[in-house]
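Quick note —
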Amino acid sequence: MLRQLARRCRGLHLCAASSSALRHLPLLSAETFCSGTAPHPAAAEVLSPEPVTDASSGKGGKRRSGKQLPSLDPELLPQVAIVGRPNVGKSALFNRLVQRRAALVHNTPEGHVTRDYKEGVARLADLDFRCIDTSGLEPFMAATTLQARATQLTLRVLQSSDLALLLLDGRAGVGTEDEALTRWLRSNVQTPLVLVANKCEKGGRNSAVEDVLTEATRLGLGEPVAISAATGDGMADLYAAIQPAVEAGLQRAREERAEAQEAAAAGHRTIALTLMGLPNVGKSTLSNRLVGKERSLTGPEPGLTRDVVRGTFMWDNYRIELQDTAGRMRRNRLELYDDAKGAVAAKTLAQGSRSMQLAQVVVLLVDSAKILTARTLLRPEIAIVSSIVEEGRSLVVVANKADTLPPKQRHQVIELLIEKLKQHAPEVAGVPILAASALTGAGVDKLMPAVTAAYDIWESRVPTSRLNRWLAEMVAEFTGGGGPAKELAKIRYITQVKSRPPTFAVFTRTDRLSTRVSKLLVNRVRQEFHFAGVPIRMLIRPAREHDEKKKKRPRAAPSKVAAAA
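Predicted structure written out below.
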């Protein structure tokens, strides 16, 4: 009884807010709920929040939930891992802490939704930290199984974390599996553990859940924190439990902040790079090799990756923000890719599409052996290329698993890809195509130079004067001949209105240009100004539209001197 009374009173002691406000605790400051105390000095000094806007929004962006995020590099923030058996609500808690639906969540009692680990910057009142959502822990399965490999990946995450939240199902109770998992964690991990009982709506204030919480104390990790990731109950108790470890990490971040600022002052450019392709073409293997650690789960089974897995690394003077996406699946056969009638696969497909839309350079991986056998790109791969062109992203193609072919056949694969891309995607003529092996590393050293070159082309601009000198030379070349000569003579001038992708406006004396002439202009611009491998937009603007806009501009009032004259 005393323990139950203390648990109920603790929420009143920590929090002066109402129960409805507690559900949205990540959006409140510490002063609002923490006994009226001010933020910890280390947190105030290190975080020094400044207004942050969403770069993807239009007019200056929107504030994120009215809060301010830390100016620190996320890599310097304290790391908190969420671990536990499958289906205890790890991803739901992760989404609540990072304040967005970043991880796939679906009720699959017989399977796993999360396989790789997913990370994001989390905020709980005045605490900012790097949160990691891991796959369900099942350490006693055979070493050859998929979940055993996922457990090893989670173990490496735990060993590098400042704190781990061990989640239990507050409704199901404590079983022998929870006891065995706790013993395994104690023997393999030195990271501090906080026991958290999830699915305890209303702070676990009912007899059944109270019994489970009391029973959980026998695990030897102290009294569990009762929360509900779905409703937000218990976030004040969770704050109190993680505050010491997170603030210790903030102290470390304060000491490393100077180094981070020096790196930022170096003027590194950032490239958003996304890996795409069909299942089992080696995207995750390539991602691990580029990042320099086993960031994604790999194996012979197709479709291992579900969430978009992110990682960062430096190459030359570029900061690369890498996203490893799941293999592209057929929309009419999604039920074949999971045990939830395609629900998880549909979410996975949507995440991959969003990742491609946010990318600047997309690396399309294809299987060299399959290309050689089929003598063409597969239909889903052509669809991926079409999507990349439609979104206006820069493209690099990698023929992976080239180590399985002799040198002569590797050249055949490259020639086939050049031919088929020219046939199916002439908008990206001249796209870089590399033969490589993500498994052995052969040829991977050529990838990043191709990516950075493609990025530089994608954001390059051509001066208007240079464009119009070239246009005059081309018009003179066709003067007196047939075909496009008459249409070209009606072009008044051309200018580049934007980059990323390169977009040009052509002002003419006619209402429109034929498709033939439009394609001629695109191909000549690509050839003359070296826009190989990036989509080019060509906007046709009748000159009278431009003249009408000029007429609508208000004229300046005559000066007094002119009026007197």
